[in-house]
Write a structure and sequence with these properties.
The chain is an alpha+beta fold. It is 19% helix and 21% strand. It has a single domain, classed as HIT-like (HIT family, subunit A), CATH 3.30.428. Bound molecules: adenosine monophosphate and zinc ion.
């Protein structure tokens, strides 16, 4: 997608602070973090959001969650390592839900206590 900001990041046309990359996914630090750790995990395939996910994308979406788990563990924030740790995964779909970039992305938030319900 030519004018998609995250596709531009994938093509290297916009700089990003890379955390992880494989053949299907890319992860980088959010430019405007709302937690001490705020990482975005995106598929290399352009999908506007989970609302545009097709049946064939099931493995890809599952992979994004796998990558999130690995990153959280690499950074030492997984409750599987330490029950006092934890992280939140957020996926906004549509403007009403707070989505501002229409290339599917999973937010990985960690490093502070989270409240519920989210705003
Ligand atoms: P959402 O509101 O769920 O669509 O999240 C979009 C996220 O992308 C926000 O947290 C922004 O801070 C982040 N963002 C926007 N542009 C960039 C960029 N160039 N590099 C890193 N993060 C970005
Ligand atoms: Zn895109």
């Amino acid at each position: 997608m030519g004018d998609c900001i995250f596709c531009k990041i994938l093509r290297g046309e916009i700089p990003s602070r890379k955390v992880y990359e494989d053949e299907l996914a890319y992860a980088f630090h959010d430019i405007n973090p709302v937690a001490p750790i705020h990482i975005l995990i995106i598929p290399k395939k352009h999908l506007a959001g989970i609302h545009e996910m097709e049946e064939e994308d099931r493995e890809l979406i599952g992979h994004l969650f796998w990558v999130a788990r690995r990153i959280a563990e690499d950074l030492g924030h997984s409750p599987s390592q330490d029950p006092t740790r934890g992280y939140r995964l957020v996926l906004n779909s549509g403007s009403l839900a707070g989505q501002t970039v229409f290339h599917l992305h999973l937010h990985l938030l960690a490093g502070r206590e989270m409240s519920w319900p989210p705003g």
